[in-house]
């Protein structure tokens, strides 16, 4: 395991720098109240937590632990480790029955392996329900590359690691050289300084660039970061290490050879050749950092942590006004090359998530009390309301990982911006940090670091010695590529191709690979045995075949309905038709096919289980839509209610929470409430709209009228199908509903029992224009009581009032109109509601009279402006992104749409 725990693998490893600092860190925001902190105040009195962290973070972690003790009452125990023993310390503890550590500081790259061993707790639900955590404020690349494994969350990420570029503005743009956006730009800069000898104020030569090139350092991460734009152009699922099917290393590809040539050029124009004593073994990152600070380099590449500390010290190093920060350059795409994610100027960027970043994982084998306290400390460190100071501090070694950490840098008066300015940044550099961070972590072509068994054997032992030989001129580019390919194939053979491929495809988000040759030899042997048997019994089989042919021919005349279970299919009388459809399913498929396939399986299983429960009949499915029939309107409505209720309780793939039409939102709570309990779910996962209509069986389709339906037996499927105006109307009612809403016709409403309505929340929608339906259709909105108050942002088009669109929604029971929503309407809305109900000639006279009395009683006491009644409500709480169904959506100050990611 020495390779896995080699010194400085993590990219935040500044031990020598940190240990030289005086331990005088004081968090000025330690006592500030945030939702995260209030949710855990005094919650863990006397609970001991042992935390594994790196020694160079000791000062910073001591301050954080002390403040957490004061907040929660927990007792914090330290377990610092060095970078050389970090991996082994975690591994040994995970393999113990319970382990000593409660909370592990870990690398994102190590999460899959330790989670597969059962050492890390699955915190997927905890994260989504944690008060104030705002999980989707964390950048997507960091959520996947640091915290997740097999679509579950196993760690709380505290920073993200990529390779940034720091360069001397006075030696680039001020010299008339191009801003280094591509490696072609970099080559131009390097050529300039090779031809134009330049010296610093100490008389030392200035080199084009400097970066780590020594083995057992961070050189392997820098190498893959430089190579990534050459190897990945098609998005994060492409990967830069192996062919996803054959597991052949990419080192045998033309793109890898091009990357090798470019990187060799960079090295030959760096301080690598400035090594004067002994054998050239490359340079450690600390040496190259000192060279840059000494004015010997124009361009410099490293992790955010070291670069952050260098910018904070720029004034002391004499670089005021001279340092610029930028994303690592990309590759200029050729005209015949497909680069769908390239920038407007044709540059393919592929930010490399080197090692992922730092994260904290909970020991799954500890007592529940300890697990909850350990998770609380991880969430405390990740607090979106306070972590801005942590990521700005040059000694924290936590780097920006949240959207708010960078979006706020556009304004120098924000707390986030002031924190960086207080630590020595110049105001002109904050937009650079914003661009660089967002370019790295929000790029759709970001590259995940290698997360397979023995990753260091590939990246370090299988790569670095061979690169150094090439840089020293001992091997050619082609020879180096072949040596690396052979070394990588040897590692794959050691761990097993199938196992490595499963790990590799899983973290790229690809489904398991099915080998077309699996079982082929066994199938051949079975075929040979079958042939021998056939030859030995040819005559008996021939006779039997003739007899079977006769039997089958007879059976075909008798079998009519038995190829499909049609016992619950309505065959006469009353027929209720149910249509379902997933809102924005096309966009969901285009966004993430893998997650959507899993989600569709969940969706289909839920609906089919309820079809069986209510003895209904699945007529057909078209895409992700269901057509269902039943002879009982009560069953139709109860089935629809259960669909809405069961869908919200499913364990959906986490990716759905980031999509507009499947994000998570909660019911609002009174603003003055003191509870810290999470609010009730309003939406979660796929949102299904449902329409229900009913009619009577008509044998002669030519005579079918509104309210009638023809039932036909399909000779092909051996099932029943349903046709006529009723079916068309049911489909159009479903099409008019919003995702997560059930709408039923007045015919269905009149037919269902008091028992069903007492278990439902029914609202009057009114008469609607429906495509392909000549007359206005009066409909109701129905939801289970548990989802009462679910909000739909959009409009319905009224048949009775064609010149207006309205979002008025009034809820009713069988006996009376409820005033919960009516009392919060404006006078204009109330009067409009009255006029519409009257114009629609509602037959529910008692309900109309009750509503009229209520409206007249309230109108006189209302002003023309909006007035809220009762407890003032918070806006609807949303996780992810919420998008209205209609382009004509209107939002008000009372119901803003809060955008997350």
Write structural notes for this entry:
The protein has 4 domains: about 15-160 and about 355-440, Periplasmic binding protein-like II (D-Maltodextrin-Binding Protein, domain 2); about 165-350 and about 445-505, 3-Layer(aba) Sandwich (D-Maltodextrin-Binding Protein, domain 2); about 520-560; about 575-880, Nucleotide cyclase, GGDEF domain (Alpha-Beta Plaits), CATH 3.30.70.1230. Helix content is about 40%, strand content about 15%. The model is unreliable at about 1-20, about 555-560, about 795-830, about 840-845 and about 855-900 (pLDDT under 50). The longest helix is centred in the middle third of the chain and has 21 residues, at about 540-560. It contains 31 helices and 30 strands. The strands form 8 sheets. Strands 16, 17, 18, 21, 22, 23, 24, 25, 26 and 29 form a 10-stranded mixed β-sheet that branches. A 5-stranded mixed β-sheet has the order 2-1-3-14-6, with helices on both faces. Strands 8-9-7-10 form a 4-stranded mixed β-sheet. The protein is globular and about 100 Å long.
């Amino acid at each position: 395991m020495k390779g896995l725990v080699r010194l400085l693998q993590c990219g935040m490893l500044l031990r020598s720098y940190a240990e030289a600092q005086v331990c005088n860190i004081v968090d000025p925001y330690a006592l500030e109240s945030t939702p995260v902190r209030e949710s855990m105040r005094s919650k863990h009195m006397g609970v001991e937590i042992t935390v594994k962290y790196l020694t160079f973070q000791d000062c910073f972690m001591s301050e954080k632990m002390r403040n957490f003790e004061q907040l929660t009452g927990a007792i914090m125990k330290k377990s610092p480790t060095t970078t050389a023993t970090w991996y082994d310390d975690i591994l040994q503890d995970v393999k113990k029955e319970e382990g000593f550590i409660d909370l592990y500081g870990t690398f994102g790259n190590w999460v899959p392996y330790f989670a597969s061993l059962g050492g890390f707790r699955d915190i997927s639900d905890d994260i989504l329900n944690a008060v104030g955590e705002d999980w989707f404020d964390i950048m997507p690349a960091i959520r996947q590359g640091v915290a997740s494994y097999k679509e579950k969350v196993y760690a709380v990420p505290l920073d993200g690691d990529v390779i940034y570029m720091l360069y001397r503005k006075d030696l680039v743009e001020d010299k008339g050289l191009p801003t280094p956006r591509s490696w072609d730009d970099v080559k131009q800069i390097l050529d300039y300084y090779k031809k134009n000898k330049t010296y610093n104020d100490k008389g030392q030569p200035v080199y084009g660039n400097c970066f780590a090139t020594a083995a057992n350092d961070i050189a392997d991460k820098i190498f893959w970061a430089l190579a990534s734009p050459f190897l990945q152009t098609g998005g994060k699922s492409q990967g830069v290490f192996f062919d996803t099917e054959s597991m052949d290393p990419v080192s045998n590809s033309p793109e890898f050879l091009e990357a090798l040539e470019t990187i060799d050029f960079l090295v030959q124009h760096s301080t690598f050749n400035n090594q004067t004593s002994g054998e050239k073994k490359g340079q450690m990152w600390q040496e190259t950092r000192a060279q840059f600070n000494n004015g010997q380099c124009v361009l410099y590449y490293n992790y955010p942590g070291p670069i952050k500390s260098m910018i904070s010290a720029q004034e002391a190093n004499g670089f005021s006004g001279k340092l610029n920060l930028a994303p690592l350059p990309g590759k200029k795409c050729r005209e015949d090359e497909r680069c769908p994610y390239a920038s407007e100027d044709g540059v393919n960027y592929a930010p490399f998530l080197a090692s992922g970043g730092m994260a904290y994982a909970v020991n799954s084998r500890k007592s529940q009390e300890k697990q909850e306290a350990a998770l609380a400390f991880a969430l405390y460190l990740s607090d979106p309301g306070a972590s801005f100071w942590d990521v700005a501090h040059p000694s924290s070694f936590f780097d920006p990982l949240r959207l708010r950490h960078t979006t706020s840098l556009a304004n120098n008066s924000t707390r986030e911006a002031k924190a960086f300015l207080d630590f020595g940044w110049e105001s002109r550099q904050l937009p650079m940090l914003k661009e660089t961070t967002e370019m790295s972590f929000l790029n759709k072509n970001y590259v995940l670091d290698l997360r397979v068994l023995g990753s260091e054997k590939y990246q370090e032992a299988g790569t670095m010695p061979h690169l150094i030989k090439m840089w020293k001129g001992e091997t050619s580019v082609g020879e180096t590529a072949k040596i690396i390919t052979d070394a990588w194939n040897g590692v794959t053979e050691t761990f097993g191709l199938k196992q490595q491929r499963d790990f590799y495809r899983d973290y790229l988000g690809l489904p398991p690979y099915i080998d077309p040759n699996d079982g082929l030899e066994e199938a051949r042997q079975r075929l040979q045995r079958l042939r021998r048997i056939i030859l030995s019994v040819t005559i008996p089989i021939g006779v039997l075949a003739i007899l079977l042919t006769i039997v089958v021919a007879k059976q075909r005349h008798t079998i009519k309905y038995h190829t499909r279970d049609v016992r619950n299919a309505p065959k006469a009388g009353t027929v209720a038709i149910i249509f379902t459809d997933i809102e924005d399913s096309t966009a969901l498929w285009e966004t993430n096919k893998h997650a959507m396939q899993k989600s569709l399986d969940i969706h289909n299983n839920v609906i089919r289980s309820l079809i069986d429960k209510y003895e209904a009949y699945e007529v057909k499915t078209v895409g992700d839509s269901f057509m269902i029939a039943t002879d009982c309107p009560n069953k139709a409505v109860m089935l629809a209610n259960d669909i809405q209720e069961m869908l919200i309780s499913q364990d959906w793939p986490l990716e759905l929470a980031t999509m507009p039409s499947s994000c998570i939102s909660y019911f609002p709570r009174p603003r003055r409430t003191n509870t810290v309990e999470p609010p009730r779910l309003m939406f979660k996962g796929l949102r299904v709209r449902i329409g229900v209509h009913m009619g009577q069986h008509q044998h002669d389709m030519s005579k079918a009228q509104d309210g009638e339906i023809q039932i036909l037996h399909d000779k092909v499927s051996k099932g029943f199908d349903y046709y006529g105006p009723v079916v068309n109307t049911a489909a159009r009612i479903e099409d008019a509903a919003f995702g997560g809403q059930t709408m039923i016709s007045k015919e269905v409403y009149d037919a269902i029992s008091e028992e069903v309505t007492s278990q439902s929340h029914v609202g009057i929608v009114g008469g609607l224009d429906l495509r392909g339906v000549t007359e206005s259709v009066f409909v109701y909105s129905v939801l289970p009581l548990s989802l009462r108050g679910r909000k739909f942002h959009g409009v319905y088009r009224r048949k009775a009032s064609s010149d207006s669109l309205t979002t008025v929604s009034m809820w009713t029971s069988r006996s009376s109109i409820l005033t919960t929503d009516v009392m919060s309407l404006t006078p204009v809305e109330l009067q409009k509601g009255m006029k519409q109900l009257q114009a629609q000639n509602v037959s529910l006279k008692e309900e109309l009279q009750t509503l009229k009395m209520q409206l007249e009683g309230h109108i006189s006491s209302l002003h023309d402006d909006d007035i809220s009644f009762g407890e003032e409500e918070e806006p609807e709480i949303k996780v992810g992104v919420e998008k209205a169904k209609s382009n004509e959506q209107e939002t008000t100050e009372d119901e803003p749409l809060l955008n997350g990611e």
